[in-house]
Design brief:
Elements: H1 2-20, E1 29-39, E2 43-47, H2 52-66, E3 72-74, E4 83-89, E5 100-104, E6 108-113, H3 116-129, E7 139-148, E8 154-160, H4 168-180, E9 185-189, E10 191-192, E11 195-196, H5 205-208, E12 212-213, E13 230-231, H6 236-248, E14 252-259, H7 264-269, H8 300-316, E15 321-325, H9 332-336, H10 338-347, H11 352-369, E16 373-377, E17 390-393, H12 397-405, E18 410-412, H13 415-418, H14 427-431, H15 446-450, E19 467-474, H16 482-489, H17 492-501, H18 509-525
Parallel strand pairs: 2-3, 2-4, 4-6, 8-9, 8-19, 9-14, 14-15, 15-16, 16-17, 17-18, 18-19
Antiparallel strand pairs: 1-7, 5-6, 5-7, 10-11, 12-13
The protein binds acetamide.
Length: 533
Amino acid sequence: MKTLGILAIAAALGASAAETLPLIPKPVTAEPGEGTFAFSAATGIRHHGDLAVEAGLLADDLAKLTGSRPKVVSKEMKILLRSQILVDIEPASDLPASGYRLEITPRTVTIIGKDAAGVFYGTRTLLQLLPAGKFDGPAMLPAVKIHDYPRFAWRGIMLDVGRHFYPVGEIKRLIDWMAFHKLNTFHWHLTEDQGWRIEIKKHPKLTEVGAFRESSPPYGNRNSDDGVRYGGFYPQDQIREIVAYAAVRHITIVPEIEMPGHASAAIAAYPELGNSDVPGFTAKVMTRWGVHSQVFAPKEETFRFLEDVLAEVCELFPSKFIHIGGDEAPKTQWEKSKFAQDVMKREGLKNEEELQSWFIRRIGKFLDSKDRRLIGWDEIQEGGLPKSATMMVWRDAKWAKHALALGNDVVMATTSHTYLDYYQAPAATELARGKEYESIGGDLPLEKVYSYNPTFVVENPAQEKQVLGTQAQLWTEYAKDMKKVEYLAFPRVAALAEVAWTPLASKNFDDFTTRLKRVMQHYDAGNLNYAKP
Ligand code: ACM
C-alpha cells in the first residue's frame, strides 16, 4: 500500500511538470526539482560497460549541437568528470521493459534504464530538453525526476518504397526522426505492383526487371502518364547497413513482401509465377496506381520461389515478425484460372477466399520453420485466420474484434486515424499551395490522429495485451521525394508517437500542441519539411 501511495503522489506531482516540459511523447511522470544543471563542453558521459553504444550515440548527437564531442568514459575508468551524465542499466528495477528514469540535479544527470532500450529513450528525452539546434556555452537544464516507459511495444511507421524509391541516406534520416519520437518499429513495404525494391540473390530478375517501370502518373493527373522510366532498389549490403543503423537506435525493421496480390512487378520479372492460363494474361511492372488483378498462381513453383525470397529476407532481417502483405488481392484471375480451380478441388477449398487462406497458411508454416511470426493486413482472415498470425488492421475495426476474439494479436493501423497519405487540411486548402500537394484523398487532421486509442476494439480486459500497438502509414503514390514524405509525416507522427507511448489518461491535445511548438524548433533545426499548422 505504501508503494502505491508514493506512486500516486508522484503521478499527481508529475502531471503538471510533464505538461510544461517540452517533450513528445509526454513522459509518464515528471517531478520538478530545485535548481539547474549546466550542460557545457566540460560535461562528459560515464557509462556502464554494456552501454558503450548508447553512450556513444548520445555523444555523437551532443556533438552535433555543441560542435565538440563530449568525453565518454566507462564506469570503471578512473577519470574524474567534474560535470557528468551517468548512464546505467538496472535490470532488476521495477520499471517495465524499455522504461527509464532520468534525474537532473544541479550536480549531475543520471539516466537509468530497465534495459538498453530504456537507456536509449532516456537519452532521447535529454536531447529534447536541450536547446534546439547549435548552441555555444552552457545550456541550463531544470532539475527534474522523470519516470517513463511506453504504453505499447509496437510503435511504428510504415514506409512504401514501391510506389516511390528513396535512397539509403534518406531512409536513415527518417529512422533518426523515428528515434527522436521514441518509435521502435520501421515497417518497410519493399514490394509493390509498381516496383520490387529488395535484391534477392537467387532471383536477380526481381530487381533487373521488377525494380523499373516505364512511366508514372504525374502530380495533378493520376489518370495519365509521364512516360519517364523510373526505378531503383536496395542491394543487400545497403539493406544490412540500414538494419544495423536502425538496430543501434533500438528500431526493428519489419520487412514486407506482398503476396498473393500487389505482385505485378514480381510477375513481370518471372511471368511463370502468374496465372498464365487466364485468357489475355500479360505481365508488366505497373505504371498506374490502384489495385491490379495480377496475383501469384498457387503453383508449387510459386511456393518454392517465395520460400527462396523469404529465406533471404530472414537472413537480412533479424525481426521476429515478417510481413507478407495479403491485402487487396482480387480473386478474378483465380476464378478464371483452370489451374487455380484444380488446386481448389484437390485441396477441398470452397472458394477463392479459402484458396488465399490456404496460400497464407503455407507461407506461415515456412516462417514457423524459420522461427518467425507471420503478420499480414486484415484480409488474411478471409477464408480463416491462421492461429499464429498477427493481424495488421487497416480497414474496419470489426476485423480487429474478430482477431482478438480468436486469440490473435493485432497491430492497429486503421485508415481512419493512421493513414498519413490523407490530406491533413481540407483538400482545397492543400491543393491551393500547388499540385505537388496532391494526396490520395480524404482528410486526417492532426487532432484526429492524436485522438486515436488503439485499444478501442478491446471487448474484455484479457484482450488488452493482444493489441501490440500502432503505426503511421506512409503510402507514397503522392510522395515523389522524401521532402513530401516528411510533409505528410510530420507533425502527425508526433501525435501518433504520443498515442503509442503516453498513458491514455495523460493525453491532452491542447497540452500536446503547446509542447509541439517547442518540438518544432528541433524540426526547424534539423531542416525537417514538416507541415506547419
Ligand atoms: C492497404 O492500405 N492496402 C493495406
